[in-house]
Every structure is written in C-alpha cells, then in structure tokens.
Write a structure and sequence with these properties.
This protein is an alpha+beta fold.
Length: 688
C-alpha cells in the first residue's frame, strides 16, 4: 500500500495532460484493438501496423473506392455501399459530419472513419461536435495541406531510439578469457534499440518505403551488419485498369480465409470486431517483424468478372538446425549473441502462389494454390505432440473458396488440402436482420495431417492443424445507448497438444456490455473465460482455467479524454493453488494545442506470479504500440511529450515500472539486479 499515494498522485497529474496528436488514434486502438493486441497475436499486430499506415495517409472520402472502404475491418459491405451511395447522391461530401445521414452507420463507425478519411472542404468534425474555433482553423489548414499532398508527393521520415536507463546482465563487461570460454555471456551490441522509417507516395498511385531496425543487444555497423541488423523495403503501384496492384519487395499475402496463405487474426474477438473476413490480396510489409512476410513480387489483375493474383518469394530465414535438419524456424528476429548470430539466415525458402476467382452474381468462387520449398529438410519430430509437425522440404496447399451474400445472410468458406494429404475446412455464416444485430457462426475442421507453412487463420491451437471447433457469437445494439457482445468457442483437439498427451477440449467465452448515454461517455463491463488442456503431475487429463473481469469508464471530449479501468484475473492450474491478479489503471488525454502535447498514464498492479500478467494499453508515439505486461507487485507510470515545428515533430516518452516484492528482474542475460525499470523513447519525424 506504500505505492497508493504515488498512484493517486499519478492520476491527478494525468488528468491535465496527454498526447493531442495521437489522442484519437489512442482511443481507437484502446477501444477497437485492445483484445487483438493484448493477446499478442501476430495477425493483430500486423493489422495494427497496417491501420496505422492508413491513418498516417488518410484518403479523400469523395474519391474513395469500395475497396478503400472495405479495408476498414469495422465496416460491413452494406455500410461501405451506403457510404458510397451517399457520396454519389450528394456529388461529394462537404463534411465528415454528413456521414450521420448514413442510416446503418453508428456514432462509433463515423468516429473511426474520421481517422482514415477526410473531406477537403470539411469545416471541422468530431464526435462531440464541440471543437474550439482555433482548432477548427488548424484543421482547415491541415485538410488543405492534405488535399495538396493527395495530388502530389508525400514523404515521411522518422527515427526512434529506445534507451533503457538500467543495465541487464548481458551488457555487463566480461574479460576476454571469459568470453573465449563462454562467448554467449555478453551481447554483441549496446543496449539501444533504434528504428528508421522512410515512407513516400506519389498521387496515391505509387508507394515506396524502407524500414531498418536494430534491437537491443544487436550490433550496429559491426558483425557483418550494414549499420542496422534488418532491412525491409517495397515499391507498390495501383491502377484502375486490368492491373490493379503490383508490389516488388516485402509484402504479405492473403488468399481466401487464410488456409493456404494468410495474414488474418485468429480469435473470436477478431470475428466480432470485423464484420467480414479479411480482404484477399497483397499488403506492403511495413512493420518491424522479421519473419511473417514474403520477399519478391506480387500482382493483382481484374479481367471483367475474374480476379487473378500471383506471387513469388525467396527469403533467408533463421532456424535451429539439428544434424543439418530444421528443428525450429525462429521468428523473433534477435541476433544479439554469437549463438543467435549462428542461426541467422542459415536456411532459405522459395514460395509461390496463384489465386483465380470469379464473381457469379451473388456468389464468388475461387481456386488457390501455394507451394513452399526449403533448401534444408525438417527433421523427424520426437515429442508426441510434434508427431505430425513439418517433415521434409516441399509443401503444397490447394483450396477452393466460396462466398455469397443472400439478403441478411453472408456466407464465407474455404476447403483446403495439403500435399501430405491433410484437409482443412473453415466456414463462417453471418446473419444480420438489422444493422444493430449481427449473429455469427463459425466452424473449422483441421486434420492432424494438414501442413501449411503460410496459413494464418482462425484457430485456438498454435497452428492450423489438429483442431475441430465451433464458435457462436453476437453483436447486439438494443438501443442507441447500449451495445452487447457475446461469443462462445468450443474446440476439440483429437491428438496430443503441448500440455496434454490425451485428446482434450478447450473453451473460450466472453460477455461484454457497453453503455454510451452520451457521445462522449462509455461504460464497459466484460467477463471472459478460457480453459485449456493441461495434464496434471500424474499425466492424467486436466485443464487450466482463467477468468478475467474488466470494468472501464471512458470519457472522450473535444479537449479532455479519460479512461479508468479495473482488471481482475483468477487462475486455476493442475497441482497448484488458485492464483489471482488485479490492476487499476488511469489514462488521460488533454488536447491542449496542435503543436505541443503531453501524455501520462499510470497503473497499480498486484499478481501472484507472471502467469496472471495483465496488459495495459498506454498512449503511444508514432508506429509504437504500447501494451506492457504488468505482473508481480508494483506500479507503472509513463509520460510523453511532443513538439511540432512546421513539418518536424519531436517526441519523447519516459516510463518506469517499480516492483515492491522483487530485488531482481528477469533471468540469464536479461537479469537485472534491481526493482525498478526505467526506459526512455526518443523520436524524430519529418513529414512534407
């Protein structure tokens, strides 16, 4: 309780100041992407980065195509069509506020759309409709600049440095003799992480970018590193004719529902938040992820009612090799020690894919094929749960996809097979008798023999394999003030999984209620249940059960925004006592001025162990998602400031996490002898 006065002081301080420039984006990420990011799903993180890029380059709503609108995962096809219809009938919108005349578009969707689209003649729009005249004038200047940029060249260059104000064991100097005998006791680089991003576009038709990154502990301009440790770049073009899109460089691909190659989220929260499956096609790789992308070329063609997509990719990957065979492909991208360096780019993969689809009235049917070749074979697994994992060098996946829109019903499906003979099938039905009521039914069946190196789709297990399950869910808005969400997902694993040697079931369920009596005020209550297979000490089937509760109040005004949250987690595990964790957190936003902003957030937490870790979403800087894990006993506080000087933007973020029940943090090379972690994030961005 010694931290309580500090926590209360943080709450008082946080009310006064917070990031003005990123406030709206923070509200969106906190409301819409919290579940996706808190689960640390790769698909969710990729979606976050993709939406951030679109937010940084908003489109003129009056020139937006149906494809542009359907890139918004929170819009249904009917809502996108309604927006286009209003734009056409009005011969162009004069204000984003005119979206209120779209009957099936609620306040939340209108507010979200304002993050990704704009009107050149807009006189200032916000959900609260209470913007000071000074901010309206500033908005008009920005929108005029956007209109000019839309017709020409847009460029953004940013650099971020992350500096920990403490030293972990891996950065402690060691003698030459010690490093000769134990070379992996010290990191090869310094403790600074840095990222460089360059983005440019011309007339919203041609896009190119470069991303370079060095993680903490990786060498800079040393050990065969040409300055940074990793690089990613692309050149992309869009067209209105037969050639709709082409990409050279790094990109992600998504065919069908993701059973052959995918880039979609993988949980029920994603299904309820996205009113339809992810769009098929190719997306530039813009994040700092070093594993989940293709490197080569891709193109999309539109030939009347037929759409054709093709890609080819060759990449070097990191892997753990055993007897010259692949044991595991490493996806974290770390190259901090000689051991990690020895696994860097030690295998290569060659991939290619082709997709052809045709529109037949209310039906769409497509055929997909993806092949993958590794220059090094996978070794034969020994652990029971890995018996049906990858073996060999060559893999192929082939599928048929189908979708239909029949009145209030929407159907999407994909049935796939792999070269090894396995089968995977995923079907999703949506029934929306009214835009305020949407019912979901999702069924998947993945055999143990289905192997797909590129698949990323709905699942409860770790891969698209050995799973049979059903998810039912609903989103209901009985009144303009109320929104209810609920789902239940049952999954059966016919063969052994990591924590259980026996066939076992898993269950995930969630119930959430939101009350919005005013445009600016939201109350939220949520309960979530998770059960997972976990054998006990006698190797008998058992399960791990987790209950989480969340109560939240959000106020989003034209000047001040507040978010107050209480989290509670209860956990039971085989052969262990029941454990729990709780957290109280406060975030605030004050939009003081466009050129200057300050941000603060605070949390007080208490968990019995790391297993009950709770996630805190913090206000962030550009391209930096903040969702730190809070565990053990302690508090976290963060503050950031940003100053814009013409096209130049300077930002800094300071965060501190203090533990009251620990004298050391981490282990191995990550060990720190202390109870307080302090970090500094510095960012410089130039946009013109």
């Amino acid at each position: 309780m010694r931290l309580l006065p500090l926590f209360l002081l943080s709450l008082v301080l946080s009310i006064g100041t917070t990031s003005a420039q990123t406030a709206d984006w923070d509200d969106f990420a906190d409301e819409y992407m919290e579940d996706i990011l808190s689960e640390e799903e790769s698909g969710g993180i990729a979606l976050y980065d993709e939406l951030m890029e679109m937010h940084r380059q908003p489109l003129n709503i009056n020139k937006a195509t149906r494809e542009d609108l359907l890139r918004m995962p929170f819009l249904s096809e009917a809502q996108a069509d309604s927006v286009l219809s209003l734009v056409g009938k009005s011969h162009g919108l004069l204000s984003m506020g005119e979206l209120m005349f779209v009957p099936n578009l609620e306040i939340r969707e209108r507010r979200y759309l304002a993050l990704f689209f704009y009107c050149p003649d807009d006189q200032g729009y916000h959900a609260s409709n209470r913007i000071p005249d000074s901010l309206k004038r500033q908005q008009r200047r920005e929108q005029s600049l956007r209109a000019n940029q839309q017709r020409g060249l847009q460029t953004e260059l940013s650099s971020t440095l992350s500096v920990p104000l403490y030293k972990r064991e891996g950065f402690r100097p060691h003698s030459r003799e010690e490093l000769k005998n134990y070379p992996n006791r010290q990191y090869l680089g310094n403790n600074i992480a840095t990222t460089l991003r360059y983005r440019s576009s011309l007339n919203n038709r041609l896009f190119w970018a470069l991303t370079a990154q060095k993680d903490e502990g990786e060498p800079f301009a040393d050990k065969d590193n040409l300055l940074y440790d990793s690089y990613s770049a692309f050149l992309m073009g869009k067209g209105d004719g037969a050639l709709r899109k082409w990409i050279v460089g790094d990109y992600t691909a998504h065919f069908g529902l993701g059973l052959t190659v995918g880039a979609s989220g993988s949980d029920a929260a994603n299904v309820l938040s996205s009113l339809r499956p992810r769009q098929e096609g190719f997306t530039p790789h813009t994040s700092t992820d070093e594993a989940l992308f293709m490197r080569g070329g891709a193109l999309s063609l539109s030939l009347g009612k037929m759409q054709i997509m093709a890609f080819a990719s060759w990449r070097q990957l990191d892997a753990t090799l055993t007897n010259d065979s692949i044991s595991t492909i490493i996806t974290n991208g770390y190259h901090r020690t000689p051991l990690e360096m020895s696994k860097r780019h030690n295998i290569s993969s060659l991939q290619g894919g082709l997709s052809a689809g045709i529109n037949l009235g209310t039906w769409h049917i497509g055929l997909n094929a993806v092949i993958t070749h590794y220059d090094t074979p996978y070794r034969t697994p020994t652990a029971l749960y890995r018996r049906y994992y990858f073996q060999g060098q060559d893999f192929g996946n082939y599928s048929i996809t189908y979708s239909s829109r029949l009145g209030a019903f929407n159907l999407w499906g994909e049935t796939a097979t792999s070269r090894q003979g396995g089968v995977a099938a995923l079907h999703r039905i949506q029934y929306a008798p009214h835009h305020r009521l949407v019912l979901h039914l999702l069924h998947r069946y993945y055999t143990t023999h289905y192997l797909s190196p590129c698949a990323q789709s709905y699942k409860i297990g770790s891969r698209i394999q050995n799973e049979h399950g059903v998810m039912i869910g609903a989103t209901w808005q009985p009144h303009a003030y109320w929104q209810m969400k609920a789902y239940a997902d049952w999954a059966h694993f016919p063969f052994a999984v990591y924590a259980s040697k026996q066939p076992k079931d898993a269950l995930t369920a969630m119930l959430q209620a939101e009350f919005t009596p005013y445009n600016s005020t939201t109350w939220l209550l949520r309960y979530k249940l998770r059960t997972r297979p976990d054998d006990n000490a006698l190797q008998l089937p058992d399960q791990r059960t987790q209950h989480t509760f969340k109560a939240q109040f959000r106020y989003t005004g034209s000047i001040l925004s507040l978010t107050t949250t209480a989290d509670l987690l209860l956990l039971s595990q085989p052969d262990k006592d029941n454990t729990k964790g709780w957290m109280l957190s406060q975030k605030a936003t004050a939009k003081i001025a466009k050129a200057t902003s300050v941000s603060m957030a605070a949390a007080l937490f208490h968990t019995d162990s790391y297993a009950e870790a709770l996630r805190l979403y913090e206000p962030i800087l550009l391209y930096s998602s903040g969702y730190p894990a809070c565990y053990h006993h302690g508090m976290r506080f963060s503050a950031s400031a940003q100053q814009a000087i013409g096209p130049l933007s300077l930002a800094v973020k300071y965060s501190i996490t203090h533990f009251t029940n620990r004298d050391t943090i981490g282990s191995g090379l990550r060990l720190y002898n202390g109870s307080t972690l302090q970090d500094l994030l510095i960012q410089v961005a130039l946009r013109f």
